[in-house]
Amino acid sequence: MQVTDIRVRGVEKEGKMKAVVSITIDNEFVVHDIKVIQGDKGLFIAMPSRKAADGEYRDIAHPINTETRERLQRMILEKYQESLEA
């Protein structure tokens, strides 16, 4: 799996959410609405989610293992930092 494009859209209002990101995988599959969040320990990503009937939010698309999540997060946060410098 190769992430072939990352598009960052900054968020105008103040708050913990800093950007919304779309990624393209292998030039064939797009995942929208990945959020860049400022947490107590720094920036992290939150995958697209939906509110379930019990009130909890559940990811609707997400990496299956920790390695993939960390790699994806690293790529997205690097692109986010680049967008701030532009």
What does this structure look like?
InterPro entries: SpoVG, SpoVG_sf. Keywords: Cell cycle, Cell division, Septation. Could be involved in septation. This is Putative septation protein SpoVG. The chain is an alpha+beta fold and 86 residues long. Helix content is 23%, strand content 45%. The protein has one helix and six strands; from the N terminus they run E-E-E-E-E-E-H. It has one helix spanning 66-85, and strands at residues 3-10, 17-25, 29-39, 42-46, 49-51, 57-59. The protein has a four-stranded antiparallel β-sheet with strand order 1-2-3-4, with helices on one face. Strand 1 and strand 2 (17-25) form a beta hairpin. The longest helix has 20 residues, at 66-85. The chain is globular, with a radius of gyration of 13 Å. The termini are far apart.
| H/E topology pattern | EEEEEEH
Largest sheet: 4 strands, antiparallel
Structural class by helix and strand composition: alpha+beta
Indicate the overall shape: globular
**What is the CA-based Rg, rounded?**
13 Å
Helix content: 10-25%
